[in-house]
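Think of the structure tokens as a kind of shorthand, similar to the way a musician reads notation: each symbol stands for something richer, in this case the local conformation of the backbone. In the example below we present two proteins back to back. Begin with the first one, reading the sequence and then the tokens, and try to describe in your own words what changes along the chain.
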Amino acid sequence: MTQTLIRYKTKPEATAQNRSLIEDVFRELKTRAPQDLRYAALMLADGSFVHVVEYAGSESPLRQVDAFRAFQAGIGDRCAERPVVNGVTVIGNYRMLDE
């Protein structure tokens, strides 16, 4: 499984739009229900966002989601701090992630 954490900060005037675009992604994911994907998005009080993605295979199933492509299309314009992508290893998990 590939596990990735992405964090970035939006411009204050773009925070609500960014959140709405992420909500669109989750609506589409509920419809598509990809089995090889785990995904969570969090919004911090300062306008920062954190996404945690886990998937099997060589490419994230998120790339096949139309709403995700729409979200990514303007991310650079919405950001005050560009996305930083890091691979992660889960070292502990108490009822947050499926095991």
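Once you have a description of the first chain, move to the second and do the same.
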Amino acid sequence: MYSTLITLALCNLLYFALHITGGGSFPHPLPPAEERAYLLRAKEGDEEAKNKLIEHNLRLVAHIIKKG
């Protein structure tokens, strides 16, 4: 129960922070080939690749948060 509340609070904070600091814009989604390459690198443990995937999927995260 607490983990759900903490996750929700963090998601809302992230959504709010992105809109305040980023002027309401998110990075564009990666092209499919580039996303595949980052997914393969992330699977091998590449932290930079994981961060790149997270950054470029923030639009989806924000959409899910708004619906929830």
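Compare your description with these statements about the second chain. Residues 2-67 form one domain.
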